[in-house]
Design brief:
65 residues, mainly alpha, single chain
Length: 65
């Protein structure tokens, strides 16, 4: 399970970088830029949630000892 979580973090980070290439800073909320901003936001949420899951699993393991 831990490998899957790290893999999801890696894929989400790669998609964040990929979506940043489509953002036009002069017109950030129109066309492909808006879609790319939504993609960056969604991938950032995935990374945060996976980090929270990793932390909660480590706390659960320590509490079980």
């Amino acid at each position: 399970m831990k490998v899957l979580i790290y893999l999801l973090i890696l894929v989400a980070s790669a998609l964040i970088i990929y979506n940043f290439t489509f953002i036009d800073l002069e017109n950030a909320f129109a066309g492909d830029s808006g879609t790319a901003l939504i993609g960056v936001l969604a991938c950032s949420i995935v990374v945060v949630l996976m980090v929270i899951l990793l932390i909660s699993r480590s706390i659960a393991e320590k509490a079980g000892e």
